[in-house]
Each structure stands twice: as C-alpha cells, then as structure tokens.
Design a protein that fits this description.
Blueprint (H helix, E strand, L loop, with lengths): L1 H20 L5 E4 L2 H7 E3 L9 E4 L13 E4 L5 E5 L3 E3 L3 E10 L5 E8 L4 E7 L6 E7 L4 E11 L6 E11 L15 H37 L3
Antiparallel strand pairs: 1-12, 2-5, 3-4, 5-11, 6-11, 7-10, 7-12, 8-9, 8-11
Length: 225
C-alpha cells in the first residue's frame, strides 16, 4: 500500500516537472513561408480568412535588410494564431514590425487570450500608419496558458498591410529566444557616435572656457592696484 502511494506521488512529481520544463515563455518569428506554416495556424473564427505570405520587391522594400517575405492579408478580414501556447508574465512584451497604409477604417491588433478560459487578457492595436513601425505591447498580467492572435480588419484594395516579424520576449529571462534579435541600423549607430562625439567636444570646450575665465580673473586680482 505504501509503495503504491509512493509510486503515485513519484509519477505526479515527474509529470509536474515535465510540465514546468515544457513551459515556453518566448517565441520569435521573422515571417517567411517556412516559419508561417510551422509557427502560425488559422484562427478558430471561421469568418476571418487566413493570412498569406508575400514577397518584398523593388517597389516595396523591407525594413530589416535580410527580410525576403512578409505576412499580409488575403481578404478584408484576416486572422492567424501563434501555434505554440506561451506562459506570459508581467515581464513579457510582444513586438511586431507593421506597415499599414490606412485609407479609412483599417486596423491591425494583437490579442492575448487566456486559453484555459478563452478570455481576452490584453489587446494591442497599431496606431501609426504609412511606414514600418514597431508595435510594442507590454503584458501587465500573468497568463500561464496564453493564446496569441494577429487580427487585421477592413483591409481594402486601396490599403496595404505587411508584418515583418512577431517576437514574444521576456526581460527577466536571459536566453537567446527571450532577447531582442535585431541590431541598431548602421545609420543609427553613426548618429549615436556623432552625437556622443559632439557632446564630448562641447564639454571640453566649455571646460576650457571656464578655466580661461577663472584664470583671467585670478590674474586680474593679483595685479597691483
């Protein structure tokens, strides 16, 4: 009897350890045909069509230099769901690089559900239009079984939608998957270098000027009257 109870407890502990180890806190997708088919799936709402993958070209170039393809809508209303369920915390954030040409009522939003209760926990909508801009959503609550959807609505033939990547990160977890993978653009790095150099130069000139003024006053004070 005791050995049977011990076996049950041992199995329960092993299952619990496996479930904890299997928890996934972060996920990163740079959209192309392979990642789309592997990491995304259609939403449960059958009234919305799936997203599609399209190619960048000479007339529409990517924001990230090595991007070749992007996520886009197929019809007026589209929806896609991140395939893995994630464990989100108050340190989690969702990043999506979105291009939306807005004509009238077009919108793109990322919705976080508690999959256990099918309840909306967070909703992040893109409010910047006309160029690639990163939508950043800060998760404010713990969602241990999170379902994440990308929803696009009222996209017409005159408007345009492109999503370059989707990253779910966590600032409290120091792993490659939970850290932002992108690097500053070269022109931004140069601007930072120039700004820092100018700041140092201004500080040196200001210090020299102050020293000269103090030195001149001391010399004037030491002159015989």
């Amino acid at each position: 009897m005791i050995s049977r109870i011990y076996s049950v407890y041992l199995v329960a502990i092993l299952v619990l350890c496996d479930s904890i180890a299997a928890q996934q806190f972060c996920h990163q997708i740079q959209f192309n045909r392979n990642t789309f088919s592997k990491d995304m799936k259609p939403c449960g709402d059958k009234s919305k069509s799936p997203f599609v993958i399209k190619d960048f070209n000479e007339n529409f170039k990517p924001h990230i230099s090595d991007s070749k393809q992007y996520l886009s809508n197929n019809f007026v209303n589209s929806c896609a769901e991140l395939a893995p369920r994630l464990s989100l915390t108050a340190n989690s954030s969702i990043h999506a690089n979105i291009y939306l040409k807005k004509v009238k009522d077009e919108f793109v939003e990322i919705v976080v559900y508690d999959a256990s209760r099918n309840q909306v926990m967070e909703r992040f909508r893109q409010n910047i239009y006309g160029n690639f801009n990163e939508l950043v959503g800060r998760v404010r609550v713990d969602v241990p079984n999170a379902k994440i959807e990308i929803i696009a609505g009222s996209i017409t033939a005159q408007s345009m939608l492109a999503i370059e990547y989707l990253y779910v990160l966590n600032s409290a977890i120091n792993t490659k998957e939970c850290r932002p993978p992108y690097k500053p653009e070269p022109f931004l790095v140069w601007w930072v270098i120039i700004a820092v150099s100018l700041g140092i130069l201004c500080f040196i000139l200001l210090s020299v000027g102050i020293y000269c003024i103090i030195d001149r006053r001391q010399k004037m004070a030491n002159q015989p009257k």
